[in-house]
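BUG: 3D viewer hangs when loading the predicted structure for this chain

Environment: internal workstation, default settings.
Expected: structure renders.
Actual: progress bar stalls at 90%.

Input used:
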Amino acid sequence: PATGGGNGLTGWKRAVEQLNYGSTFGLIGHYWRALDILTDFGDVATVTGVRCDFPDIPFKVLMPNSQNNLFDWDEVGDVVMNGGKAFSPPLRTRYARLVWEHTNGTNGIHCQFVGYGLQGQEETPYVPVP
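Structure tokens produced before the viewer hung:
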């Protein structure tokens, strides 16, 4: 789930969790400008892709180039799938960012990472927080 961070304000000062599927509104950037959301999975997770309900506005997925350095980010996921992106092979990371250069043309985007979170030693499906 989106947990905050990033570099910008959200439209209508909505909580960052509004980006998650199942939320009422979705998110836009402040005055439909850029939107930059940092997700902290809490532990290293296997991320297989991103799903997004507004395919008309391109976005970037960024991962830290080192798990200990949140200042240097690399773009990943060039395979587009129905408004989302797939990662092949899956990525292993604790942190990830979703970045839109603008959010014009929408009143709320829902976008969420998919994959597997770690619980103990077993991998379980990563499910969105309602």
